[in-house]
């Protein structure tokens, strides 16, 4: 950023929109930063207390500085967006919400960066609205479905569900300690901010548990449809991802015709945070060329 521009903050970019699309009629929170001709949407993961800003705070500024408009959508049921109980496909529900948000903002075509659930949702959006997607960046997700190698639910998903059921600082630390490979950057401040986000919305916690009870498979397996995705796709994974295993990334690489895969060594489920500088450079290079 130049000396004249102010770095985007959560509060300065915070916005609300009311969407009425398909079966959804709700208020969404999003962050909107930058004024570029091209728009990049970032979609967060499904952990308790997650939000666009919590997941992507290390990635917004470099994209804005490079000339992109960046939108972080808080999915229904997270952060300051309205609550929802999801009895069907959460990936498709989020994709519908995104379509409603983009229609309301008058944005026709976007690049999508998705983390975990956000990547599942980005694929759902691309399948339903192929003409509205430029490029896809899928990180630690992109499709549900069983791993042939890792027992499921994975240890990370079990810890995540434990926080939803019992949101204590101890449970939160157990979960966050395996988000990343190197835990030395996890500060007490980070734990506390995340716990505050979690405890601010007991309704979101209850609804997530109710959704799981109604439909344990919130994220469908898009495997048979991956071949329909024409968008150039960058798949990014952490080798030590203990939430969504690396073999899911290989399935995406095999299934999406125009995909490439980058695997970070010494990296868990939060590649965009743990390896932020390199992640940002790779994404910018991928979007430009
Ligand atoms: O169950 C799945 O396949 C998705 C799990 C998921 O989205 C986990 C995300 C966790 C975070 O990145 C987060 O909460 O910040």
Automatic annotation (TrEMBL):
<comment type="subunit">
    <text>Homodimer.</text>
</comment>
<feature type="active site" description="Proton acceptor">
    <location>
        <position position="269"/>
    </location>
</feature>
<comment type="function">
    <text>Catalyzes the cleavage of the C5-C6 bond of 2-hydroxy-6-oxononadienedioate and 2-hydroxy-6-oxononatrienedioate, a dienol ring fission product of the bacterial meta-cleavage pathway for degradation of phenylpropionic acid.</text>
</comment>
<protein>
    <recommendedName>
        <fullName>2-hydroxy-6-oxononadienedioate/2-hydroxy-6-oxononatrienedioate hydrolase</fullName>
        <ecNumber>3.7.1.14</ecNumber>
    </recommendedName>
</protein>
<keyword id="KW-0058">Aromatic hydrocarbons catabolism</keyword>
<dbReference type="InterPro" id="IPR000639">
    <property type="entry name" value="Epox_hydrolase-like"/>
</dbReference>
<dbReference type="InterPro" id="IPR023791">
    <property type="entry name" value="MhpC_alpha/beta_hydrolase"/>
</dbReference>
<dbReference type="InterPro" id="IPR029058">
    <property type="entry name" value="AB_hydrolase_fold"/>
</dbReference>
<comment type="pathway">
    <text>Aromatic compound metabolism; 3-phenylpropanoate degradation.</text>
</comment>
<dbReference type="GO" id="GO:0016787">
    <property type="term" value="F:hydrolase activity"/>
</dbReference>
<feature type="site" description="Transition state stabilizer">
    <location>
        <position position="116"/>
    </location>
</feature>
<dbReference type="InterPro" id="IPR000073">
    <property type="entry name" value="AB_hydrolase_1"/>
</dbReference>
<keyword id="KW-0378">Hydrolase</keyword>
<feature type="site" description="Catalytic role in ketonization of the dienol substrate (substrate destabilization)">
    <location>
        <position position="194"/>
    </location>
</feature>
<feature type="domain" description="AB hydrolase-1">
    <location>
        <begin position="39"/>
        <end position="276"/>
    </location>
</feature>
<comment type="similarity">
    <text>Belongs to the AB hydrolase superfamily. MhpC family.</text>
</comment>
<dbReference type="Pfam" id="PF00561">
    <property type="entry name" value="Abhydrolase_1"/>
</dbReference>
